[in-house]
Specification:
The structure is a single chain. By secondary structure, this protein is α+β, with helices and mostly antiparallel strands. The protein is built from 17 helices and 14 strands. Among the domains are: 92 residues, Beta-clip-like, CATH 2.170.270; 198 residues, no CATH class. Helix content is 40%, strand content 13%. Its main location: cytoplasm. This is Protein-lysine N-trimethyltransferase SMYD5.
């Protein structure tokens, strides 16, 4: 773990902790709130580091043996173990294995249900915040346990590539259940946008339309059976569950951790002779070719989390900041992509790099269905006169594209 344990647990998701550099302001009734700088930042500067209120590994990711700390999502495999599994080469030996920062001797299992943590500190933090309410104890392998049934149902509806987890909702409920000051946690979670529709623009979240009512009803019933609490009754009504579902789908920030990636970055920083550098680079290049052949694009332990400050950032198709997870855990680093002046709004992109390169119409379609708004950033305004057709349509005009599929599996993988 790159960040010291003490630092990780002191990085609370409390805007007051970073009030010297950023502040949340109300903008207007359309955009709501936004995050603004209180001082200048240069390109590449870290604006803030934030710990999530809750986070959870994706269920398929965990099922496919991407081993991560149940609390902080730190990768538990050593870089060499990770490289061997991803490449399918069990005898592979990494150069400079001492650069791996994973410490298996510090790993701890929950004594009741055996879920794994990267440290005693993480195990204790999870137990004190939510795990007491979620621990399956000796029932962790029983298919009929309500939590196991819920997880199976979620996996059958939400295939890779994953973008959210029902367990993020479970941890929200469990956190409030265990908290001495329940109203404090409820206030924190109430900061996240949880609307299921944008009435002004007549937009409904893509997974809350009539098409998916059967799937939502099943999840609602299983979720209620597993976690119902009279003190949180507002989250267990059909509409309350829809709002909770929308909150997680709209605000969940993807988290990726990798011991192998950390090892590669550490190798890049080594001072070597030109011959040694050439040999090491060739070794890493071949390793990634082997991994691509065996595993494809799924390299990381993956999950999502709810971050108070980060969730206050509005979207732009030309962002001036981006989030990353360089510490191989759930600590989010928000870094400046360009110089930012005092008082300027900090904007991130809700789209990945490939999506940002698509047509204005395609970008708007993704943002409407997943985030319930129509973007009016500088790039979108400059393309306002472009033809209203999707990027697939544009490619098809050129004879290269395929029309977008609309089956259940495609929809359910894109919360």
């Amino acid at each position: 773990m790159a960040a010291p344990i003490g630092d990780m647990f002191s990085l609370c998701a409390d805007p007051a902790k970073t009030s010297h550099s950023v502040e949340v302001r109300f903008i207007d009734n359309t955009k709501g709130k936004g995050l603004f700088t209180k001082r200048a930042f240069k390109k590449g500067d870290t604006i803030f580091i934030e710990r999530p209120l809750v986070s959870a590994q994706f269920l398929w990711n965990a099922l496919y043996k991407y081993r991560a700390c149940e609390y902080c999502l730190s990768a538990l495999e050593t870089a060499e173990e990770n490289a061997r599994r991803l490449s399918g080469l069990p005898a592979l030996s990494l150069l400079h294995p001492e650069l791996c920062k994973v410490r298996p001797d510090r790993h701890q299992a929950c004594p009741q249900c055996q879920v794994m943590y990267c440290s005693t500190e993480c195990r204790q933090a999870a137990w004190e915040q939510y795990h007491k309410a979620l621990c399956l104890g000796p029932s962790h392998n029983e298919p009929e346990h309500p939590i196991n049934k819920l997880q199976v149902a979620w996996r059958t509806m939400h295939y890779p590539p994953e973008t959210s987890s029902i367990m993020l909702m479970a941890k929200m409920v469990a956190t409030v259940k265990q908290a001495q000051d329940k109203k404090h946690w409820q206030r924190l979670f109430s900061n996240f946008c949880s609307r299921t529709a944008n009435e002004e623009e007549e937009i409904v979240h893509k997974l809350l339309g009539e098409k998916f009512q059967g799937q939502l009803a099943l999840l609602h019933n299983l979720f209620t059976t597993a976690f119902h609490d009279d003190r949180l009754s507002q989250w267990f009504t059909p509409e309350g569950f829809r709002s909770l579902f929308s909150l997680v789908g709209t605000n969940g920030q993807g988290i990726g951790t990798s011991s192998l990636s950390q090892w590669v970055h550490a190798c890049d920083a080594l001072e070597l002779s030109s011959q040694q550098r050439e040999q090491l680079d060739a070794f890493i290049d071949q390793l990634y070719k082997d991994i691509d052949k065996e595993t494809g694009d799924f390299l990381n332990c993956e999950g999502s989390g709810l971050f108070l400050l980060q969730s206050s950032c509005n979207h732009s198709c030309v962002p001036n900041a981006e989030a990353s997870f360089p510490d191989n855990n759930f600590l989010l680093h928000l870094n400046a992509l360009s110089d930012i002046s005092p008082g300027e709004e900090i904007c991130i992109s809700y789209l990945d790099c490939c999506q940002r390169d698509r047509s204005r119409h395609s970008r708007h379609k993704i943002l409407r269905e997943n985030y319930l708004f129509i973007c009016s950033c500088q790039k979108c305004m400059s393309q306002a006169d472009d033809a209203d057709m999707t990027s697939e349509d544009e490619e098809e005009v050129d004879g290269e594209g395929e029309t977008e599929g609309d089956d259940l599996e495609d929809e359910m993988t894109d919360v």
